[in-house]
Design a protein that fits this description.
The chain is of the alpha/beta class. The chain has a single domain, classed as Alpha-Beta Barrel (TIM Barrel), CATH 3.20.20.220. It is 48% helix and 15% strand. Helix 5 packs parallel to helix 6 (157-169). The longest helix is centred in the last third of the chain and has 21 residues, at 241-261.
Length: 289
């Protein structure tokens, strides 16, 4: 059984792709077709599947990661969010993953429920608590998230970094960053993380831009920024989807080549369940191998 933490110890860049679980059975089949297309040209080392706010899509997350791993032969990682769950519920979810052959989990706090409900009294408050609980009860590899431009809810960049430090201390074998568009933000964060004692791989998260309004919404939610020169180029072509995608692909290829040249441990692509832009980017990167 492949452990994702072991992949990052192979001394080569690891390429991974993130999808979100569809809401219908038909959409699940469409997602699997997309992953098959990506497998043919992208040769992914692993696929991750996200987890809806409040666990609303957890059954489809389980179904998707299980089928990706068993039917397509690609190691899969399930996102797991603790917000809104009791410890018993978390234990049940992880047990189901293990029984399905999934040994890789990305531990997250998750988004607060839209109805404003709080986590149960016996729940887990944040991702560090979740990592501690999962590592203490199950034989799985656990990864965590980190934020080069600081989590939007953090009181300070230093305090936010300490959460990443704690995740590594508790057993996270790798950290995947939130999306960013300026590599200097990533490099500065990695330097600070190393000085703070984080030794695990810090994997850059890349989101190809395919829609201006969409990327503006995402960056606002996660506290990331679009460099002014890139934003200006996108704004000039806002109503031209083809031009926007071309600009987004060009920027992502430049980002990825620079990251790999500077020895990033791999690339984690936020695909938004679309393979075209990611496939083009991967082809450009693979051409240099």
């Amino acid at each position: 059984m492949i452990r994702i933490g072991d992949l990052y110890e192979q001394g080569r860049p690891i390429f991974s792709f993130e999808f979100f679980p569809p809401k219908t059975d038909e959409a699940v089949e469409g997602l699997l077709r997309t992953v098959r297309e990506l497998k043919e040209v992208g040769r992914p080392d692993f696929i991750s599947v996200t987890y809806g706010a409040g666990g609303g899509t957890r059954s489809r997350t389980l179904a998707c990661v299980s089928r990706i791993q068993t039917e397509l032969g690609i190691p899969a990682m399930a996102h797991l969010a603790c917000m809104g769950h009791t410890r018993a519920e978390i234990g049940e979810i992880v047990e189901r993953l293990v029984q399905s052959g999934i040994r890789n989990v990305l531990a997250l706090r998750g988004d607060p429920p839209r109805d404003g409900a709080c986590s149960p009294v016996d729940g887990l408050a944040n991702a560090t608590d979740l990592i501690d609980y999962v590592r203490g009860h199950f034989d799985v590899d656990v990864g965590g998230a980190c934020y080069p431009e600081t989590h939007p809810e953090a009181v300070s960049a230093d305090r936010d970094l300490q959460f990443a430090v704690r995740k590594a201390e508790l057993g996270a074998r790798f950290l995947i960053t939130q999306l960013f568009f300026d590599n200097e933000d990533y490099f500065r964060f990695v330097e600070r993380a190393r000085r703070s004692g984080i030794g695990v791989p810090i994997v850059p998260g890349i989101m190809p831009i395919t829609n201006v309004a969409q990327v503006e919404r995402f960056t606002k939610l996660c506290g990331a920024r679009i460099p002014s020169d890139l934003h200006a180029r996108l704004e000039r072509h806002r109503e031209d989807p083809g031009a926007v995608m071309a600009i987004g692909i060009e920027h992502a290829v430049t980002q990825c080549r620079n990251l790999l040249r500077e020895h990033a441990p791999g690339l984690h692509f936020y695909t938004l369940n679309k393979s075209l832009a990611t496939r083009v980017i991967l082809a450009a990167i693979r051409a240099l191998e």
